[in-house]
Amino acid sequence: MAGFVNVRRDVDDKFYRYRMPILLTKIEGKGNGIKTVIPNMSDVARALSRPPTYPTKFFGSELGAQTSIDEKNDRFIVNGAHDATRLRELLDAFIDKFVLCGACKNPETDLNITKNEMIVRDCKACGEHTNVDMRHRLSTYIIKNPPPKKSKRSKGGHAEAPTPPRANGDNGADGEDGDEAAGSDDELTKRIKAEAAELNADTELAKEDWSADTSPEAVKARISALQSGVAGLSVSNGADDDSDEDADSPYSQLGRWVEENPNSSAVDVYKKVQDLGIEKKHKAVQVLAQALFTADAVAEIPKYVAIFAKMVSSEKHQKSLLGGIERLAGVSYPELIPAIPKILMEFYQADVLEEEVIQQWGTHVSKKYVDKDTSKKVRKASEPFLKWLEEADDDDDDEEDDE
């Protein structure tokens, strides 16, 4: 697997909070058909919060080479043979021109296109709006292919790689004059984190008795419920392209492996998923949600969230993840039910769960993963988070009206 580097490679602080995968290259073909494939362009672009087409086109423009883009199959190609070092230097140039804030040099920016077709970097850290160089050929491409509109609000830190967060207060300032904002949370992020910490603290749900029976018999019953849930995934999920319903199905194997290796790293878990050939299956997401976490799920999610960010690629995957969360809290660890808002917040802030999917799930009781009463309890527990989403939406609408 590729390592990670600072988004700003001129910053050598190992605690710098904005990270991205090292750009990889692969030379294919011979003679006039030789080309450079960038196998992890999507991952790099995701860390920069930019469409992968932008840096690919930037490379082609700077090198005077044709590019070939197949987003469906995740293929990003620059014609000709170009070594990784050269492309990494060009990526630094792209980041400087189209990612970093022109004022504070923080990568926490969004690209906006104004009415007079100017491209502006909207910085979430310092609040400045700085123009990009409209003379560059990529600017014309961006105008014709604007970045997709975000369906959810910026949650701060969107340029970070999916690595576990460090202790509070470790903002990783790089120590250079004028870059203090690059290592600190913006006001919106601070507000969201504060509200997330307070979610469901004073609700009626928190006053209910959600304590779990810790007797050997009760623990054994919960383990049996988890195992039966994993073994019967294909039955509970309805028709699917995988019909394994026995204990030897890859999903059952994955569940057992996770239970037998409780301290495995995120890399080890994902390798196991790949070994079983189910890294693209939505059921695998459900199994991991059930098997990876314990009653301390809120603290454990950051350790494994990168796996879900890698595997969750559709609405169906998101629903399977929510189904796994239902079984985790509703069946295995009932004491987790009051923590549902915080669990949802963890996955939401990591861009694993989308706002619309969460809202639809939270307002529609289902017997697909758990019984109806348990489904109601879990969704009722999510109400503080759903309310927060609605209120934040209203705030955004008001800000847009003001603008």
The first-level CATH class of the largest domain is given as Mainly Alpha
What is the C-alpha radius of gyration, as a whole number of Å?
23 Å
Q: Quick one: how many beta strands? A: 9
The figure for the number of domains is 2
N-to-C SSE series?
A: EEEEHHEEHEEEHHHHHHHHHHHHHH
Task: Report on this structure.
Helix 9 runs parallel beside helix 11 (282-291), helix 11 (282-291) runs parallel beside helix 13 (315-332) and helix 12 (297-311) runs parallel beside helix 14. This protein has 2 domains: 4-149, Defensin A-like (2-Layer Sandwich), CATH 3.30.30.170; 192-393, Serine Threonine Protein Phosphatase 5, Tetratricopeptide repeat, CATH 1.25.40.180. The strands form 3 sheets. It has a 4-stranded antiparallel β-sheet, covered by helices on one side. It has a 3-stranded antiparallel β-sheet with strand order 7-8-9. Strands 1-2 form a two-stranded antiparallel sheet. The protein has helices at 41-48, 53-63, 84-98, 137-144, 187-198, 204-207, 216-231, 233-236, 250-260, 266-275, 282-291, 297-311, 315-332, 340-349, 355-362, 372-381, 383-402, and strands at residues 4-6, 19-21, 26-28, 35-37, 67-70, 75-79, 109-113, 119-123, 129-131. Mean pLDDT is 79; it is low at 152-185, 200-212 and 231-245. A hairpin with a 5-residue loop joins strand 7 (109-113) and strand 8 (119-123). By secondary structure, it is α+β, with helices and mostly antiparallel strands. The chain has 17 helices and 9 strands. The protein is 47% helix and 8% strand.
